[in-house]
Specification:
Elements: E1 21-26, H1 31-34, H2 51-68, E2 77-83, H3 87-97, E3 105-110, H4 125-138, H5 151-170, E4 181-188, H6 190-201, H7 205-210, E5 219-224, E6 230-231, H8 238-243, H9 248-257, H10 286-295
Parallel strand pairs: 1-4, 2-3, 2-4
Antiparallel strand pairs: 1-5, 5-6
C-alpha cells in the first residue's frame, strides 16, 4: 500500500480502488495543426481548436462514453477527468463532456504536468522547420528545443504526475464508491500521451522513437485485465497497435498483461535483458564459466 506521506508509483493494494480504465485522449484539431504560422503570433497555450476540432471532440464524446459504459452493458460507472491547461485541451474536454450525464462525473482537475511539450515561446515557422529537421537527425526523445523542452524533460514531469495519480487513487481523492467502475480520462497532447504509456509500460527510448503520434481526438484505452494488470490489448486489436508503431514484442507483452497477475514481471521482455546482454552464456555452470574466463586470456593466434 502506498505510504500516505510519500509519493510512489507502486500500485495500490486495495483492488476495489483501482480504476477500471485509464483513457488518454489527444485534443481536437487546433489552429496550430492547421497552420504552423499560428504559433508565431499566438502563444502555444492559447492556440484554439478549429471548427473541425470542435466537431472532432463532439464526436469523440459518445465513442468514449460507449467504452466506459461497456457498450451500454454497465450502469455503475463513473468518470474523473484530468486535463492539460491549454485552451485546445480544455475546449476538447468541454465538447467531450457533453456526452456524459452530470451524475456520472466525479470531478475534473487541471493538470499542468500533462501539458504540451514546450517548443519555446513564439515560434517562427521557418526557424521551427529547420529545428525539427535537426531533431529528426538527433533523435526525438533527447533533442531539446531552444528555450523549450526535450521529450526527456516531458518524461520527468509525466513521471511525477503518475506518482500523484496513484496517490489520488490510494487516498480515494476521486470520492469513488468501490461498487462503481472508475474511469480516469486524461485529455492531453500527443507526445505527453506517448510518454505516459512509455513510462507506464517501461518502454525503452528506442521503442519510443518508433511510436506514431495520436490523431486529433484519438484515444488509447488502458484497461484492467483479469489478473489486475493494465493492458492496451484488452480494448485494442493487434492491427491497431501495429499501426501505432508498436513492435510484435511490445504487442505480445500487452497480451501477456491482459491476463497477468498484478505486480508480476514478464521474464520474456527482450528489451530488459537480451537488448543489453547479447552474449550471455546459456548455462551458469561454474566449469563453463571458468573455461570461458580462462579462454578470454589466451593469446590471439
Amino acid at each position: 500500500m502506498i505510504n500516505s506521506t510519500t509519493e510512489s508509483t507502486d500500485v495500490p493494494t486495495q483492488k476495489y480502488h483501482l480504476p477500471k480504465r485509464i483513457i488518454l485522449v489527444r485534443h481536437g484539431e487546433s489552429q496550430g495543426n492547421k497552420d504552423d504560422a499560428a504559433y508565431s503570433v499566438t502563444p502555444d497555450y492559447k492556440i484554439p481548436l478549429t471548427a473541425r476540432g470542435i466537431e472532432q471532440a463532439n464526436q469523440a464524446g459518445p465513442r468514449i462514453l460507449d467504452v466506459v459504459s461497456g457498450h451500454g452493458s454497465s450502469e455503475n460507472w463513473k468518470v474523473y477527468f484530468y486535463v492539460s491547461p491549454y485552451v485546445r485541451t480544455r475546449s476538447t474536454l468541454r465538447e467531450i463532456g457533453r456526452a456524459f450525464p452530470k451524475n456520472s462525473m466525479l470531478g475534473v482537475r487541471e493538470e499542468c504536468r500533462v501539458r504540451e511539450q514546450d517548443f519555446g515561446n513564439f515560434q517562427v515557422a521557418e526557424r521551427m522547420k529547420v529545428i525539427k529537421e535537426t531533431r529528426e537527425r538527433f533523435g526525438r526523445f533527447f533533442y531539446r528545443f531552444p528555450e523549450g523542452e526535450s521529450a526527456a524533460d516531458v518524461y520527468d514531469r509525466v513521471s511525477h504526475f503518475l506518482e500523484t495519480l496513484w496517490r489520488d487513487v490510494d487516498m480515494n481523492r476521486h470520492h469513488h464508491n468501490p461498487e462503481d467502475e472508475l474511469n480516469l480520462i486524461i485529455v492531453s497532447h500527443g507526445l505527453a500521451s506517448r510518454i505516459f504509456l512509455m513510462k507506464w509500460f517501461k518502454w525503452t527510448v528506442e521503442q519510443f522513437e518508433y511510436l506514431n503520434n495520436l490523431g486529433n481526438c484519438e484515444f488509447r484505452v488502458m484497461e484492467l485485465g483479469a489478473g489486475g494488470e493494465y493492458s492496451l490489448a484488452v480494448h485494442h486489436t493487434d492491427e491497431e497497435m501495429l499501426e501505432w508503431g508498436m513492435s510484435p514484442e511490445m504487442i505480445a507483452d500487452q497480451k501477456w498483461r491482459a491476463n497477468a497477475n498484478r505486480g508480476a514481471l514478464n521474464d520474456h521482455f527482450p528489451w530488459y535483458l537480451d537488448a543489453f546482454f547479447d552474449h550471455l552464456a546459456d548455462s551458469n555452470d561454474k566449469d563453463d564459466h571458468d573455461v570461458k574466463s580462462n579462454n578470454s586470456y589466451l593469446p590471439l593466434a
